[in-house]
Amino acid sequence: MAASSRSFVENERADLADLFLEVGPDAPTCCAGWTTAHLAAHLVVRDSRPDAMPGYGVEQLGVAKPLTAWSHRLEDRLRESTPYAQVVDRVRSGPAPWSPLAWPPVSRILNTTEYAIHHEDVRRARSGWEPRALPSAAQDQLWTAAGLFARKAAGRRGLVLRRSDVPGEEKRYGAGGRTVTGEPLELVLWASGRRDLARVTVD
């Protein structure tokens, strides 16, 4: 499929798979303790094992549960039993048609941030990286999806996310608090906890 006919999520998945092969299985990522082999296995398990999803859900809430341990055990099994190139092929092919993650409405909500963030987790772990110039349509999708992380990031203090690429466009979570300004990809990275990586200003 030509890149021009693919969705943003499909482009992110394909480009991340290419980058996985370029850097190899032992390259660092911005996910603490994970190499590219760990991250590739995570994406495949997420796409293909519905029984792993509850563990990922409670992990996002910052709660340590047996469900999370099960999800990571599945990742370890895949990584240890399957050659890296085959795991990357499965990243590239994406979820099976029966998976909810393959349904366009669900994919737009959950996969837009997942693949964009993890793409940057690999890119920004390498020296000499620069922010990407994403099309405005892609930034719009990320802006729509930013709330997945922003509500948690707001906490009790509140939070204002402000787009630097579209004057006057902002979202408020809670009573106010900090104002974080940047392009939507950078705001998503910041709100997801990657504050040392995100190119934003915080007031």
TrEMBL record:
InterPro entries: CHP03085 (IPR017519), DinB/YfiT-like (IPR034660), Maleyloyr_isom (IPR017517). NCBIfam families: maleylpyruvate isomerase family mycothiol-dependent enzyme (TIGR03083), TIGR03085 family metal-binding protein (TIGR03085). This is TIGR03085 family protein.
